[in-house]
Amino acid sequence: MNPSIGKPIDRVDGKLKVTGAATYAAEFPIKNLAYGVSITSTITKGRIKNIDTRQAQKMPGVIGIMTSENSMQLHYPAGSDPGNGKFAEKDLLPLQNDRIFYGGQHVAIVVAETFEQAEQAAALVKVEYDQQPAAIGFEKNIASAYKPASGLGGAETQIKRGDAEMALQTAAVKTDETYTTPVYHHNAMELHATIAQWDGDKLTVYDATQSVMGVKGLLTATLGIPSEKVQVYALYIGGGFGSKGFTWANTLLAPMAAKQFDRPVKLVLSRQQVFSAAGRRTQTVQKIALGADQNGKLSAIKHATTSETSFVDEFVETAGLATSMLYSCSNVDVSHELVRLNRGTPCPTRAPGEAPGTYALEVAMDELAYKLKIDPLQLRLINYADIEEQKKKQFSEKSLKECYERGAEAIGWTNRKAEPGTLKEGNYLVGYGMATATYPANRSASTAKATLFADGHAEILCGTQDIGTGTYTVMTQVAADAFALPVEKVKVKLGDSSYPKGAQSGGSQVSASVGPPIRAAALGAISKLINLAISDSASPLHGYKEEDITADNGRIHLKNNPNNGETYAQILNRKGLEKLEAQAKTNVSTRQQGPPVPAPPGSPEAKAEEESKNNKAVQEDEKTDRKDYAFHSFGAQFVKVLVDPDLGTVKVDKIVGVMDIGTVMNLKTATNQIMGGMIFGIGMALMENTQYDPNNGRVVTRDLAQYLVPVHADIPEIEVHFINKPDPYISPIGARGIGEIGITGITAAIANAIYNATGKRVRDLPITPDKLIA
Amino acid sequence: MEPFKFIRVQDDQSAIRAALTIGTKFIAGGTNMLDLMKLNIEAPKQVVDINKLSLYQIEELPNGGIRIGALVKNSDLAYHPVIIKKYPVLSEALLSGASPQLRNMASVGGNLMQRTRCPYFYNTDFACNKRVPGSGCAAIDGYNRNNAILGTSDKCIATHPSDMCVAMAALGAIIKVQGPKGLRTIPFNEFHLLPGQTPHLEHSLRQDELITHVEIPPIPYATRSHYLKVRDRTSYEFALASAAVILDIQNGRIQHAHVALGGVGTKPWRAVLAEKVLTGAVANEQTYRTAAEATLSQAKGFKDNTFKIELAKRTLVRALTITGGMS
Ligand SMILES: Cc1cc2nc3c(=O)[nH]c(=O)nc-3n(C[C@H](O)[C@H](O)[C@H](O)COP(=O)(O)OP(=O)(O)OC[C@H]3O[C@@H](n4cnc5c(N)ncnc54)[C@H](O)[C@@H]3O)c2cc1C
Ligand code: SF4
Asked: What is the pLDDT of residues A681-726, one digit of tens each?
């Protein structure tokens, strides 16, 4: 049988989705369901003086109104790891007191028999506030910036090697500019939604989340209930892009209300509410100074980022992280500062750090190339990093030069004229731009269970989830190859916290994390099956050695005599077994410093860990010593734009992304991920931005008519290419992540192309017509 | 959303009778009305569905003009062969608006009556004189990049968002309305009101009146016309600036000029000053630029939208150039 990995198979859940049969969090038919509607604060900072619910209480259908006066007390969650349950606003558990930290903060939940009744009653609740002066406006508060201790997952935020300051002073050629990016919102199609149902002391939650296991952990901690009493489902998720990576208040409010009013409760945030109460990408100001010699060799890079966070948690957009490793340079100084504002808390957004960071760095590189009169692509090659210079490690695999080459070819880079404004097509000025894309390759501990059934089909259970990226499909391919079955015979089940713990869908880590244990569990099941046959005198394979036997298309047979064998079903049926199970846990982590933490005794993961000691695939995988390697994906983004210089409008004419992400597991889903990221980049570069009122600091642009994302007419011809070279160290599958890298570099490539067309260097995103006619 | 009574009427008279009840609103395509209700900006007591009325015709009139029923869908109007041939500016304006799905629902009457897209108007947490008279205007000192530069007042600076209306303003359309006392005709220029001190009053239609038709006068030279829209994304977005232009040029000289601007005015903006400059002048870039300067000399920018003054000029010059060429 030919391997399935690498084949561009259709999405296994495609039909369910297009026919509406896939159930998203808010779509589970629950008997006796009541509807919650959130009331959010209309002040930016202060205290709630009084909530008058009398009129609302009397409205038809109203079951109750939950406020900080009557809501249950929550326990403080300890976690800061989204995979184990990170609450997005650690100092603002919902409805616990009268304090207001931002406009749009939840202040009450109205629960009624119908959604319409809840909405109507919500409009009648009168909230009185004591307003306090708030921290409004990034620029106005920049003086209060402080240095955060660390970023997400303990990421370093202040990184130094050599002496960048000194090197800058003596550099022959320098650039020193400031780049700014606005607040961006994820705008997943599916709104944040939760249904909670109590059955005695057992809680079932249907949640729009990027981490069923994280939500389970968080509910266990905050509600103070044992973990076996909580079950979380997220069978299908309508996009997350980071906004569902941390857990937001809706996930707690629904079970709180369900308990209080003794009814299952559904709570869906409105699009407007998502703009304040469900995360965002923070605003950044990035100062980048580059120093080089006359030949273009970098001698100094300084990248100082200031971003903003809320008063109730700390999130650092680590824009400078990639700068510490993207180019070869002996003197590097990366720093991050934070300003606190009375806004909702930011959180990861597709390529947190790298997306705005590569924008600034890669525009700065373009500026340097112009100063040096060196082709921007050439400048990248001159400063190519053969090793990860900050960590002083080899890259596990890096084929970036090939990416540059193929991208340049595909866009027609030789057509580019260095002098801006010289190429024209009709009324348009033509420009070409490029930039480097990069994103770390993450992998974390994961567990999976494999089952072979006597009817010949097989199943995988894994407590990760498919947020729309294609995890169901790609993992079906992984499992099919390991089971030696056609994909139609394999069913992958995800999105249920009762399954063995899988990775959180964040940091582009799912394929790299859950692929290996899924593969190992399936191989483990086959190994058990082979051993059954070997020890069974009725089997034609009786008495042979495991090494002499192989599996193919639902059958095991002797390697050197395919005729001597039998099907999985034959073995199981003869043995009177309905099914055969195997579990596997791989502890490999590309981020973790110390030794892996063993699973808690008695947990399903502990059992898998035990079984994995005899699993050859796990042992093989874990034998690889990874500490000498830096794991990163790379890519090259090339863009051609047409600019109307009189009207300031930009038409992206063609974009090419060439990605080096290890093994391409499925060309369709892979292309889709990169393409989606590149389209995000068009939005970032040309139109997306969230505006806050300059006087009271609340969100002004809070729906999809005011917050623009690219529409079809904005999206040009997109070419996505892959190097498709397996990463020999990340895992036996060789695939690094792919969800985020597509958005990196692309924004800079567009900005650079606009400069090449017009000679206008806009350093403040998005690049809208007003900035180009100024 | 507030509960409301919903009735469906079969003829114009029943519609008008129903509208005598205070708090009644007609609903046609519902593409604006429903949003306004869901966001608690409007809370009609009674909603009257007028989609069963027979106002779907597009008829050529004996005088060469055209009569359009108020319920004609934006897409049907845009793709009507007579409109494409005789009034390309109207077809282009319609097709530059919203998205295909919306245009398939949106009616001519609803488009005339659509309300502003000022973000503060759509957010009941903010002060807005248009929504709550006397409450103040959050946009004047707030985020006002998309607001108006022409026809503003110290009470409101919201733009009229329609594209169709800009073309109709240039065409000098006539609005036919029916009320309890019979038929009435409103010239396009008098239909929409400037905000002045009463920005909540947006048009001269009375509560109990129904728009039945829009008539476009015969303009033989309107075959030479164009609508140009500049916006932050290529489609499905309101104008930063737009221009509807109709030029009658003989031997290089402009005999007649109709010009209106969108995205910049508190109402669809007939650019009378530009028309004065253009009429009788040589059709060249100099003339176009002078015309644009003349019309925008009245403009006043705010914190975030001063760029619209220059952008509107350039948009108009480009539209005139495309339509009139260079002599
Ligand atoms: C996302 C989005 C983008 C859009 N983009 C654009 C754009 O780019 N350009 C543009 O021009 N428009 C745009 N629109 C607006 C769209 O054109 C209007 O919503 C539409 O024209 C309204 O028509 P309707 O029939 O749906 O009106 P409805 O929503 O049914 O009604 C609107 C108003 O008109 C009144 N009304 C309707 N018919 C009559 C009648 N016969 N007599 C008296 N009163 C009547 C109603 O009472 C109500 O007050 C957009 C809308 C949306 C939602
Ligand atoms: S500009 Fe007009 S619509 Fe906008 S907030 Fe002010 S009053 Fe309201």
From this structure: 999 999 999 999 999 999 999 999 999 999 999 999 999 999 999 9
B2 CB near a chain A CB, below 8 Å?
Answer: yes
Report CA(B93)–ligand 1 centroid distance (Å). 14
Q: Give the span between the Cα atoms of A410 and A334, in whole angstroms.
A: 34
Instruction: From the CA of B126, give the closest atom in ligand 2.
Output: 5
- Residue of B322, B317, B314, B295 whose CA lies nearest to B226: B322
Residue A594 clears pLDDT 80, i.e. is over it: no
Dihedral sign for Cα A515, A518, A524, A525, please.
negative
Q: What is the CATH number of the domain that holds B276?
A: 3.30.390.50
Residue A593: pLDDT band with limits 50, 70, 90: low
Average pLDDT over residues B172-201: 97
Sort strands A284-292 and A173-181 into parallel, antiparallel or unpaired.
antiparallel
Q: What's domain A17-133+189-239+244-277's superfamily in CATH? A: Aldehyde oxidase/xanthine dehydrogenase, a/b hammerhead (3.90.1170.50)
Do the domains at A17-133+189-239+244-277 and A142-184+281-441+630-773 have one common CATH topology? no
Is B112 domain-assigned? Answer: no
Report the CATH number of the A442-589+591-623 domain.
3.30.365.10
Domain A142-184+281-441+630-773: which CATH class?
alpha beta
Q: How far is A274 from chain B (nearest CA, A)?
A: 14
Domain ranges of chain A: 17-133+189-239+244-277, 142-184+281-441+630-773, 442-589+591-623
Residue A82: pLDDT over 80: no
**Which chain A residues are within 8 Å of B234, Cβ to Cβ?**
651, 711, 713-714
From the list A189, A279, A272, A193, the residue with the least C-alpha distance to A238 is A189
Supply the pTM of this predicted model: 0.98
Q: Is A708 exposed, middle or buried (0-12, 13-18, 19+ CB in 10 A)?
A: buried
User: Is there a catalytic annotation at residue A89?
Assistant: no
Residue B251 lies in a domain: yes
Contact check, Cβ <8 Å, A123/B143: no
Residue B131 lies in a domain: no
Alpha-carbon distance A675 to nearest alpha carbon in chain B (angstroms): 19
What's the start-to-end Cα distance of chain B, in Å?
A: 57
Q: Provide the domain limits for residue B236.
A: 225-324
* Candidate from B42, B117, B121 with most ligand 2 atoms within 8 A of CB, to mutate: B121
Q: What is the pLDDT of residues A288-311, one digit of tens each?
A: 999 999 999 999 999 999 999 999
pLDDT in tens, A213-269: 999 999 999 999 999 999 999 999 999 999 999 999 999 999 999 999 999 999 999
List of E strands, B61-195: 66-69, 174-179, 182-187
Q: Is position B47 within any domain?
A: yes
**B236: chain A residues, CB-CB within 8 Å:** 711, 713
The reply to whether A227 touches chain B by the CB within 8 Å rule is no
User: Is any atom of ligand 1 closer than 6 Å to the C-beta of B25?
Assistant: yes
Rounded to whole angstroms, the Cα distance separating A740 from A349 reads: 9
Instruction: Tell whether the model's pLDDT for residue A451 goes beyond 70.
Output: yes
Q: State whether A693 and B310 contact (CB < 8 Å).
A: no
Q: Which residue of B has its CA nearest to A705?
A: B237
Atom of ligand 1 nearest to the CA of B26: 47
Q: Is the CB of B109 under 6 A from ligand 1?
A: yes
What's the number of domains chain B is made of?
2
